[in-house]
Write a structure and sequence with these properties.
single chain, alpha/beta, ten-stranded mixed β-sheet, five-stranded parallel β-sheet, binds zinc ion
């Protein structure tokens, strides 16, 4: 949703906003260099017990410049880092660059082959100079070029990164670190070698993962059981791939698509003859079957023939179905209409068209066979799906091409898997839970000769490699794997996921699911940049396996980079004992020093810094990394480090849309980050990316939003300039205090009591700080920004109405309070829009950077229930009067207001107490309680008052209820008198008389007996 905003007034009177009043570029350059000079983002081991906070983001893969979409995760982490710094933490926020993997190598090959598509992208989209493109025949040059480009972009965005810790994953010591990681995993028995399925590019002859695929899709595949039906009593096999082998008892027929071509193939050197589609025969080859194509056969040649169900030996017909796709499974489907929506619908469709068919089978004999019942179903729940028929009607399925069938299938599958029990017609499996029966039947089929095999297929196909070729599931022999299937390991990871902080919370289950389905994962390739597998140098460790514990390396890299530690000369000598000691505390420091040619004190210093900063306190990443990187990050930390070094928090964000559309090269809507900064300024881009959504939703970047944010920031800036020229506080006199702190002191030392509206605004300011702080704790960024930028404007606007009504505009106290609010808002804004905030902060006369200022605290004693409630009271009263004027359609000369009697106020307080303390809402029960006590027993005389009061209270927000409970009662008469001018201005009747009575007053003018309707906080009104 776009942020709608009105320009409104400025705090100190309105002034036209001039877009040229700021030179953003100059301002950004100034503060970037000032932050650098003052080393504000450099964090080191601190021996004064200052609390640390270690934030990391998934480091970038430098094969293209960053675009606006990349900006989200990094900006979010930077906001988090800046917030924690202001909360008083010693924040470490470092960055590295991920060179390893195959994509950069593949790009380099395409440059050598003079691929015009890629070269065009470099030239036109990324603006890479021609001579640089020529150098891209070396893969490292690609990485270096974009590394620099990305780094400059991060600096332009103002990210508060400790750049002393920068590294790349092909640095010599990093490679040694990865070698150490793999040897450690191997020692723990977590590396295995064998044949396992992987996503595979047949052209590159390499496994593929998310980094290697077009659209960055993580290949996911499922394990199917391939059941071998026999054709017409002869030896030809009709294999069908199924995820539900237990439904074999309910098979009524096979489906083939009459319009597609099938192959008869010799499988595994003539061991068997199968009929499958062309696509299936290719898939089988990648699963290590030898295939020889014998001849082709049209689907319709098979229609009307019979096949044997291998488990029951029953003959079943082969029938036609259009939903059968050549590239799904084997192209032959076993039909279970009793439990599969597709089969059910295809059978209905077929029976309708039966007159068109040329074969001679009595379709009325083919009917769904129920073999599973649902246990413990709640039959009274009408929305519940109990069988295939329910699913068909729920999703309003009309024919077998209906897209709703996919959902219907999932629901039935899910229900039967978790709640199903096998019926008596399933032989020895009768009475068994479906979950168990599925495993048992699968094992039986696989263990019996020639009945079934395992078959793999992508669930998210098609998967395309970046080289353009379609990928397959391949059974890879002699491949090295990290064994994420290890039961004990998984168990520990599940326990950890139960405990760790995950933002947003909704993702916890998704992590559990990933951990459940993770299997062995290929961890090495035959090509690409990276570290060699320590025990088998033909293999290079792949990029999602060498990037799972690198956060620990940020500690070490500082010592390598900084000249003063002169560590570079010893890099050749450093071996695994170094990492054992630094990261695990294993070994003897004297020996390590001798082995590695390093001083004992240096090793000790690195170890201390590691212990100080580790674990990672918050890990930020995009949602697409949940099924791979983030899960591997958890697994590896748990395997390698002590429990106290396991990460504390994981933060996941959604992606970014551009004007509502997915960013893609073909739509031409990929805007490089640095280009966008040039045009709009970094602060604007940061806010425009962050303000449109909460964590997990897709953010929608739009130029309208960007423009309106820029105007908002200019408004803040203009305001600061007015304060400056008003010469109110030129320089903050005490260098140890910031402007807001000074103003608080000044305001509280004021000799006169503050007016009600002053206390109200200061109270609202505490609420703002409280709300924004609460949002920040769970990174509800959109909400926080909305409060800072827009919601508080409404309060300022109202405050000004109130002071104007009292003619206080030139009151010194008013100015102080407005400037206090403004200073606090700048502080709150500074993690989001650091450049403009710093500029304003400085111009307000503060001596030190807003980066190192303290996050505003809430002063509970300044939260003022009386001023908040009286303000609400006046607002509602004004509204009530306006409404009456609207209805009567004539302007009154006098307004009579009757405030409720003290006896009504007592009853009101009593009811409020009952509702708050006992949560009682029932009229009868509340009345009973009132009558029980002598001092409120008179309530029984006025039941309608009690009833209305209960309604009044229940319609109030909880905050207001607790205010009123604290207040006991409101002096409504004097509040109205204090606001007479305001009321007449608000109802736009300037020369009106307002007369206030208490209900109890004997001598009041009350011709229509209105006063008896008055209630606390709701006076009665009479107009004349
Ligand atoms: Zn490929």
């Amino acid at each position: 949703m776009l942020i709608k905003h009105s320009r409104g007034e400025n705090n100190l009177g309105s002034k036209e906003i001039n877009d040229n009043s700021i030179n953003w570029k100059e301002l950004e350059t100034k503060w970037k260099s000032r932050w650098k000079e003052e080393h504000l983002f450099e964090a080191d081991y601190d021996n004064t017990n200052k609390k640390k906070y270690f934030i990391t983001v998934a480091f970038p893969y430098p094969n293209s410049p960053q675009h606006i979409g990349h900006g989200r995760t990094y900006s979010l982490a930077d906001v988090h880092a800046r917030y924690m710094r202001m909360k008083g933490y010693n924040v470490l926020f470092p960055m590295g660059f991920h060179y390893t993997g195959t994509p950069i190598l593949a790009m380099s090959k395409r440059v050598i082959a003079e691929d015009q598509d890629l070269i065009g992208t470099f030239k036109n989209l990324y603006n890479v100079p021609e001579n640089i493109i020529k150098s891209f025949i070396e893969p490292e040059n690609i990485a270096k070029f974009f590394h620099n480009e990305i780094k400059l972009g991060m600096q332009d965005m103002g990210y508060s990164i400790d750049w002393r810790r920068e590294f790349t994953t092909i640095d010599m010591l990093y490679s040694k670190f990865i070698t150490w990681q793999f040897k450690t995993l191997q020692k723990k028995g977590l590396i295995v070698q064998g044949s396992h399925p992987v996503g595979w590019c047949p052209y590159d002859k390499n496994p593929v993962s998310q980094h290697d695929t077009i659209g960055d899709v993580e290949p996911e595949f499922s394990e199917y059981v391939l059941i071998k039906f026999r054709l017409d009593d002869n030896d030809i096999i009709l294999p069908t791939a199924t995820l539900r082998p237990e439904t074999i008892f309910g098979v009524t027929n096979l489906w083939v698509n009459p319009d597609i071509e099938y192959f008869i193939i010799d499988v595994d050197n003539n061991a068997e003859q199968w009929i499958v589609t062309k696509e299936a025969s290719t898939k089988l080859e990648f699963l290590n079957h030898s295939i020889k194509i014998n001849k082709t056969i049209k689907g319709n040649e098979l229609i009307g023939k019979f096949a044997t169900n291998i488990i029951s030996n029953v003959n079943i017909p082969i029938l036609p179905a259009k939903f059968v796709k050549p590239d799904t499974g084997t192209g032959i489907v076993m039909s279970v209409p009793g439990h599969a929506p597709y089969d059910f619908q295809a059978l209905i469709d077929l029976k309708k068209e039966t007159n068109l068919l040329s074969f001679n089978i009595d379709l009325s004999q083919i009917n769904p066979i129920k073999i599973i019942e649902i246990q413990e179903a709640n039959v009274n729940d009408n929305s519940l799906i109990l069988c295939v028929e329910d699913a068909i009607s729920k999703f309003k399925i009309n024919n077998q091409s209906d897209l709703g069938l996919e959902k219907a299938t999932n629901e039935v599958y899910h229900l039967e898997y978790y709640q199903g029990r096998m019926l008596p017609n399933t032989g020895k499996y009768a009475g068994m839970d479906v979950q168990l029966a599925k495993e048992e039947i699968k094992n039986y089929l696989l263990a019996t000769k020639n009945l079934a095999e395992i078959f793999y297929e992508f669930v998210n196909k098609p998967i395309k490699c970046r080289c353009g070729n379609e990928c397959f599931v391949k059974l890879l022999n002699d491949q090295w794997f990290i064994n994420y299937k290890d039961k004990e390991w998984k168990h520990k990871v599940h326990n950890y996921i139960d405990e760790v902080s995950i933002l947003p919370e909704d993702l916890r289950q998704e992590f559990h699911n990933v951990v459940d389905w993770l299997k062995e994962r290929a961890c090495a390739r035959k090509s690409g940049l990276g570290t060699k597998l320590p025990w088998d140098h033909e293999w290079i460790i792949e990029s999602l396996s060498d990037s799972v514990i690198y956060m620990a390396y940020y500690i070490i890299s500082k010592f390598v980079n900084e000249q003063k530690y002169s560590m570079k000369k010893s890099l050749n000598n450093i071996d695994e004992s170094f990492f054992d000691y630094i990261l695990l505390g294993i070994g003897n420091v004297h020996e390590v020093a001798k082995n590695c040619n390093l001083s004992i004190s240096l090793i000790q210093e690195i170890r201390n810094e590691f212990i100080y900063f580790y674990p990672v306190d918050s890990r930020h990443s995009g949602r697409d990394l949940v099924p791979n990187h983030l899960s591997f990050f958890i697994f590896n930390h748990i395997a390698i480090f002590e429990k106290k070094f396991w990460p504390h928090q994981i933060v996941v964000n959604g992606s970014v849309l551009m004007e509502g559309k997915k960013m893609s090269k073909s739509l031409g809507n990929i805007i490089p980050l640095r280009t966008a900064i040039q045009e709009y300024g970094a602060d604007t881009i940061r806010l425009a990316i962050l303000i449109s959504s909460e964590l997990l939703q897709d953010a929608d970047f739009s130029f309208d939003t960007a423009r309106s944010i820029r105007i908002k920031l200019l408004e803040f800036y203009t305001l600061s300039q007015q304060i400056l020229t008003s010469n109110f506080y030129n320089k903050v006199s005490n260098p140890n205090l910031s402007l807001d702190e000074l103003l608080y002191v000044d305001i509280s030392e004021n000799e006169y009591p503050l007016e009600l509206e002053d206390r109200w605004l200061i109270s609202k300011l505490q609420r703002l700080i409280n709300n924004v702080t609460r949002s920040m704790e769970t990174l509800r960024i959109r909400e926080a920004l909305h409060n800072i930028l827009y919601v508080f404007d409404q309060h300022i606007h109202w405050y000004k109405k109130r002071i104007n009504a009292k003619k206080r505009s030139n009151d010194n106290m008013v100015n102080k309070i407005l400037i206090l609010c403004f200073s606090i808002r700048i502080k709150l804004l500074s993690p989001f829009a650091p450049f403009i905030s710093e500029e304003i902060w400085n111009s307000l006369g503060n001596r030190s950077s807003v980066v190192s200022s303290k996050w505003p605290t809430v002063f509970n004693e300044k939260i003022d229930p009386l001023s908040e409630e009286s303000d609400e009271f006046i607002k509602k009263l004004t509204l009530d009067i306006s409404n009456i004027i609207k209805v009567t359609k004539k302007l009154p000369r006098t307004i009579y207001i009757y405030c409720s009697s003290s006896s009504k106020q007592k009853i009101y307080q009593k009811i409020l107490k009952i509702i708050t303390l006992t949560n009682e809402r029932n009229f009868g029960n509340i009345m009973k309680k009132l009558i029980q006590e002598p001092e409120s027993s008179y309530a029984k005389k006025d039941p309608s008052f009690v009833k209305k009061t209960i309604e009044d209270i229940l319609s109030e927000p909880v905050e207001s209820r607790s205010n009123r409970l604290n207040l006991n009662s409101l002096d409504e008469i004097s509040i109205i008198k204090d606001s007479e001018n305001l009321i007449s201005k608000e109802i736009e009747c300037e020369n009106i008389q307002i007369i206030v009575y208490s209900e109890e007053e004997k001598e009041k003018y009350d011709p229509k007996s209105k006063s008896r309707f008055s209630r606390p906080y709701k006076p009665a009104i009479y107009l004349e």
